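Why should sequence recovery work at all? Because a backbone constrains its sequence more than one might expect. Tight turns favour small or flexible residues, buried strands favour hydrophobic ones, and helices have their own preferences. The token representation captures these environments compactly. In the example below, the structure is given first.
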């Protein structure tokens, strides 16, 4: 005989403003099986949870219904309370009368009636609930961090300092990411290399970190606590176990005019190279595409001058499979190309550059040794125009989001320009100034008031060349005047986007991403660093545009989640996963084809002599997320999700 308690939450005014919660409780008291029903202002509060515990003991409840907010919000909270009172936590259900009722309807009798119906559905369902047992999953206490930018570096160091092994994978020859290419950082104008390089060295020297540069993720198998990740170690043609980074090889290389990726195309490198002087590891790789020995079988000077015999032109890509328990994705960002803007010369004019290129011009280690020079003729620009929101907040280019850091780095760029070219003129065209961070607004005010940067509110409609000048045409919306500036150089604050290839990485790890390619979190407020794939976490700009402090904070948050996972030998997982009835399974494996998490395996059924009789589907408890497509497609109705059986769902429907 069911003995169910129903608890109706006011959620402050979120529910009670449009739903008559007392009437819902009154209706619940009349339903068969309900022995206690009450409404309360905040059921999730400590007194509210104590009320549930007391009712379980006093009325000997066999089931609990909390009519409140979405189960995604507080169902774990209520189930913990139920468990502490001695009732199986999976005999507690949440009726969503906030998101599905009070928030989407005005106050009326119909709204209250809908709340009553939603609550009654869950009452009927819980009558068919069974006591489920959480799943125990063993844990491999080793983490994989994908991406060697500042977020990946921070995550790796935090996990390693926690006493666990970390494999840090970076697809380029050096860690450091975008931050390594910056000149100075806002709002303190610290030297970027000065604050990043020590962390890079710490990664290389940490006994718990295995650094794998020039390496990419090739494939992924497994599940939380037990991932098997195959890594592709790209051919470096240099044995890093022998090489000491002396530099003789790249100094002798005749291929010296290859555009440098690190210098954003403003400088050159050799075919055998390290990306920048502070690179970690400080050992070169060979660019096979441009190496004469690799492509034509000619040259080989680097091999001849290498005293340690570290050059191997027969090097090949290698695959290595590593076993890890958790993964942190920190794949960073790219900038959109300005060629999508025909009004800005399609980005083809050498003196129209993006923000990362300006960083290299301003950097003491850059191609101009920190002097601001025009790329076209190496002259010092007397007038520089900075344009904000190039691509950001532009629905016509399918980019409707704000890139968040452009307002700040444009202020920094204008300030650095004025510091280096004292008589120069700096103009900034802006839509809005979004400087919402500690000391951020003061930094922008400093650029305007102390350094004399001229801010013009408006968009630029056209840039065209007239002789040595770039004619910038726009409008100042505050004065209503048309503005034409004869600039020497233009800097575009182009939108940040998810880094190239991140969607492929996301698919490998079965995590979601939005229409722009940024990796999606489970919950934007309560679980901001977790993904839909258990055991896979995110950090930095792969999630959305971020500044350095936010990326570092997110990395530490992700690493804390990993350390919490590794704090025990086994993980406890929610048992609401699919189960197969082997007696009725016909082995069609339609479930295998639709499972987005690759959780369906094939199990051999054999007789006592070991002869194969047939194959049936089997659910991998570590991989299954309980999403349900397998249940829907099974032609023999042999697979159901625990907690959402046909019996339970029909009970809900028939209660209406």
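From this structural description, the recovered sequence reads:
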């Amino acid at each position: 005989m069911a003995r169910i308690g129903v608890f109706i939450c006011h959620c402050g005014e979120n529910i009670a403003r449009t739903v008559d919660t007392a009437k819902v409780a009154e209706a619940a008291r009349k339903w068969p099986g309900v022995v206690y029903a009450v409404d309360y202002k905040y059921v999730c509060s400590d007194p509210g949870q104590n009320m549930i515990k007391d009712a379980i003991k006093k009325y000997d409840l066999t089931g609990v219904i909390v009519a409140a907010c979405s189960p995604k919000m507080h169902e774990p909270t209520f189930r913990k309370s139920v468990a502490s009172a001695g009732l199986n936590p999976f005999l507690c259900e949440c009726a969503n009368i906030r998101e599905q009722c009070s928030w989407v309807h005005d106050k009326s009798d119909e709204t209250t009636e809908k709340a009553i119906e939603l609550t009654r559905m869950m009452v009927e369902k819980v009558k068919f609930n069974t006591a489920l047992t959480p799943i125990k999953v063993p844990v491999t206490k080793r983490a994989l961090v994908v991406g060697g930018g500042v977020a990946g570096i921070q995550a790796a160091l935090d996990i390693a300092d926690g006493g666990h092994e970390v494999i840090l994978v970076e697809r380029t020859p050096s860690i450091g990411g975008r931050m390594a290419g910056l000149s100075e950082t806002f709002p303190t104008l610290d030297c970027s290399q000065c604050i990043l390089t020590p962390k890079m060295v710490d990664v290389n020297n940490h006994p718990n970190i295995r650094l794998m540069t020039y390496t990419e993720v090739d494939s992924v198998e497994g599940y939380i606590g037990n991932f098997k990740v195959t890594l592709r170690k790209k051919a470096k043609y240099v044995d890093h176990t022998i090489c000491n980074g002396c530099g003789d090889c790249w100094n002798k290389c005749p291929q010296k005019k290859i555009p440098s990726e690190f210098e954003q195309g403003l400088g050159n490198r050799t075919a055998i190279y390290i990306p920048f002087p502070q690179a970690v590891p400080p050992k070169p790789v060979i660019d096979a595409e441009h190496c004469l020995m690799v492509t034509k079988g000619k040259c080989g000077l680097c091999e001849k001058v290498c005293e340690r015999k570290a050059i191997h032109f027969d090097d090949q890509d290698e695959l290595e499979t590593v076993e890890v328990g958790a993964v942190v994705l920190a794949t960073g960002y790219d900038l959109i190309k300005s060629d999508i803007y025909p009004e800005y010369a399609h980005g083809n004019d050498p003196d129209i550059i993006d923000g990362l290129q300006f960083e290299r011009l301003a950097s003491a280690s850059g191609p101009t040794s920190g002097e601001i020079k025009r790329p076209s003729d190496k002259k010092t620009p007397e007038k520089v125009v900075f344009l904000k929101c190039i691509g950001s907040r532009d629905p016509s280019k399918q980019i409707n989001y704000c890139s968040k850091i452009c307002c700040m780095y444009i202020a920094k760029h204008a300030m650095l320009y004025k510091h280096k070219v004292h008589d120069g003129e700096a103009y900034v065209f802006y839509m809005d100034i979004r400087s919402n961070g500690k000391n951020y607004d003061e930094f922008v005010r400093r650029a305007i008031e102390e350094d004399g940067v001229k801010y013009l509110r408006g968009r630029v409609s056209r840039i065209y060349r007239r002789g040595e000048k770039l004619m910038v045409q726009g409008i100042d919306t505050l004065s209503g005047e048309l503005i034409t500036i004869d600039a020497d150089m233009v800097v575009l604050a182009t939108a940040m986007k998810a880094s190239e290839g991140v969607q492929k990485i996301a698919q490998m790890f079965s995590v979601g991403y939005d229409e722009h390619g940024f990796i999606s979190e489970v919950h934007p407020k309560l679980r901001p660093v977790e993904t839909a794939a258990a055991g896979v976490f995110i950090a930095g700009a792969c999630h959305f545009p971020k500044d350095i402090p936010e990326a570092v904070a997110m990395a530490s948050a992700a690493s804390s989640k990993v350390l919490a996972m590794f704090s025990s030998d086994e993980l406890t997982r929610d048992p609401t996963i699919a189960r197969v009835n082997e007696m009725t399974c016909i082995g069609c494996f339609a479930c295998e084809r639709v499972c987005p998490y690759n959780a369906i395996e094939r199990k051999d059924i054999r007789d006592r002599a070991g002869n194969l009789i047939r194959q049936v589907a089997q659910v991998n408890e570590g991989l299954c997320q309980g999403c349900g497509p397998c249940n829907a497609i099974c032609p023999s109705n042999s697979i159901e999700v625990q907690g959402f059986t046909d019996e339970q769902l029909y009970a809900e429907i028939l209660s209406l």
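A few observations help interpret the result. The first helix runs from residue 21 to 28.
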